[in-house]
Structure formats: C-alpha cells, structure tokens
Amino acid sequence: MLGKVIGALVGEEIGKRHGQGGKGAVLGVIAAGAMRRLGPLGLVLGGAYVAKKAYDRSREKA
Questions:
Q1: Is residue 62 part of a domain?
Q2: What is the extent of the structural domain holding 18?
Q3: The organism sits in which domain of life (predicted)?
Q4: Cα–Cα–Cα angle for 53, 55, 26, rounded to 5 degrees
C-alpha cells in the first residue's frame, strides 16, 4: 500500500513537470511498478524524490 501512495506522489510530480495530461499518471504507474521490483530500496528512492521536490518547492516560495 505504501508503494502505491509513493507511486501516486511520484506520478503527480512527473505530471507537474510534463503538463497536466495523462502522461504523469502513466509514468506514475510505471514508477510504482519499478519501485515494487526494487523492494525497500525503491520505496526509499521514490520517497526521497518526492521529499526533495517538496523541499525545493517550499524553498522557492520563501
């Protein structure tokens, strides 16, 4: 379940970068599958990606 949540967040970040089409959702599903195959390392990498994007966005506002 945690992998699906992180996959959705990664897909949202990708969608923001590439426009608001279905491309972000499709890439999010692919990223979630890849993260599941990598096991715990994939979850850590996906979570780190989302956390860095959130951190960069908060620094940009300040």
A1: no
A2: 2-57
A3: Bacteria
A4: 20
Question: Is residue 17 a contact partner of residue 56, using CB atoms and an 8 Å limit?
Answer: no
The amino acid that residue 49 corresponds to is Y
Q: How many CB atoms lie within 10 A of CB 58?
A: 9
Encode pLDDT of 1-23 as tens digits: 777 777 777 777 777 776 666 77
Q: Which residues contact 15 (CB under 8 A, 6 or more apart)?
A: 21, 23, 24, 25, 27, 28
Residues 55 and 48: beta-carbon distance below 8 Å:
no
Residue 43 lies in a domain: yes
Q: What's the domain count of the chain?
A: 1
